[in-house]
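Thread title: Can someone regenerate the structure for this chain?

I was given the following input by a collaborator and told the matching structure tokens would be attached. They weren't. Posting the sequence so someone can regenerate them.
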Amino acid sequence: MKFYAVLLFAFFTVLLLQMGDCQKKKERTAQQIKKNKQNKIRVVNKNNAARGRKLKKKRMFLDRDLKPTFIMTQVLEKGRFQKPKETLNLTVGQSIELRCKGDNIGWAYPSYQNISRLSIIQHQKYSQLRLDNARTTDTGEYSCWLRLCDGPECSKDDLKMGKTYIFFTDPAELFVPSINYFDIIYLRSDQPAIIPCRVSTPLAHVTLHREFPPQEIPANGLVISYDAKKGFIIHRPNLEQKGVLHCVANLKGTQQTSSNYLLLYAEAFRGPPSATIEASSNTVSGGEHVNVTCTALGNPDLLVDFTWKYPGQQDERPVIITNSWRLIDQQNGHTIRLSKSMLYIDDIETIDVGDYICTAQNVMGDTTVATAVFFHW
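Best answer:
Regenerated them for you:
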């Protein structure tokens, strides 16, 4: 009897132990499933976060590409650089070095530069401009830009540029020298006119004067204003402003007078030149000579090019062609450019009979006119 009681006790003990193990196994399984779910959620969130950072970075990159990037730096000394100010004030005799980041850089600088004092070197990652022993003629804007090239054709990248305006001051030379002693400026009612009295220092006080009758012309900022980087700006040109003018600069007791400027009121030609053609005689006899003149009227500051077609051209008939131009004042006070091209043929032959065609062309377009020459029988 005792044996059966012990056996029964042992059986229930084993049964209870197995039930406990099963319960613990279920708890461990449930905890493992919960843990795996949490890990999976964390992994998914991590992937989403990474994807979000990538998209954000891409968007930031695109946005940054749409904003202009200033690529110019000024070299102060070895190992020291700074972004140049919009305007720099230096003195003559100094040297300056500018760099622009990029492997293909274009530059613009004042046109009076002496190439022996200016050097531009393209390095692997930047371009270097260096100017030595600066003079007042070097005053002006220095700019650079990244060049985008597709084969032989290149263009400016407007989003990667740099510029600064540099005054090179000389107390004895206040005005930036001009190439010409006497400049012609055209006044047009449809656009501002600039009298280029630029100075080598923005501290100079500059006034505008008329030669005859002698008088100072006020610059009140409305009709006329002054910019040290450009000169006097006539915002509303009119016929009464034509004449000979000059500028006077004063700085700490030093006074200087600029070159003279001839202001002409010009008619605004918005198209190609107006052309006419005329022969000295439209009926000729053998052995005579003839002049065929092509006349063009147009914008006073636009050059006119002439081209001819004539009967003996293919046979290389010898002709003499002379071109000339001059400015003329019309009765209304407007100034226009009168251009002429004259074709001369000596000892007329039958090969010279026919149509003489002239084409007058400027940047706005071209005009073709013709006349005929006949034999007198």
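The longest helix spans residues 2-65.
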